[in-house]
Amino acid sequence: STSESGGVPRNALPAPTPDDNVQTLDVSGSGSTVKLDALGPLVVNADGTMSRIANWDKMAPIERENTLRILGKRNQERLAALR
């Protein structure tokens, strides 16, 4: 594409590969997994919009584990309510 201010072409960033900074964690014990990247997990808001946890990169490992456990359950409940 070109920029608005002068028609200088800009190259797009390459698409991420499936393995780029992604961790897969079992959060329920029943085989349900959540994929994470450097930005942290997606949060399903009550209105169906998605967001991220702003301070994910600053959380301690135990905080991340607890957040994932709670978030996994809450996201499932919210998705079910939206259906």
Commentary on this structure:
The chain is an alpha+beta fold. The protein has one domain (23-82). Helices cover 27% and strands 17% of the residues. The protein is built from 1 helix and 4 strands. It has a two-stranded antiparallel ribbon with strand order 1-2. Strands 3-4 form a two-stranded antiparallel sheet. Strand 3 (42-44) and strand 4 (50-52) form a beta hairpin. The model has no long low-confidence stretch (mean pLDDT 77). Residues 1-23 are annotated as: Disordered. It comes from Hypocrea jecorina (strain ATCC 56765 / BCRC 32924 / NRRL 11460 / Rut C-30) (Trichoderma reesei). This is Fungal specific transcription factor.
Adjacency order of strands in the biggest sheet: 1-2
Q: What's the number of extended β-strand segments?
A: 4
Shape estimate: extended
Tally the structural domains.
Answer: 1
Strand content: 15-25%
**Strand-and-helix sequence, N→C?**
EEEEH
**Helix percentage range:** 25-40%
Q: Rounded to an integer, what's the Rg over CA atoms?
A: 17 Å
The major β-sheet equals: 2 strands, antiparallel
Mean of all residue-level pLDDT scores: 77
Count helical runs: 1
The structure class reads alpha+beta
Q: What are the low-pLDDT stretches, counting only 5+ consecutive residues below 50?
A: none
Separation, N- and C-terminal Cα atoms: 38 Å
Please identify the oligomeric state: single chain
Short description:
This protein has 83 residues and is α+β, with helices and mostly antiparallel strands.
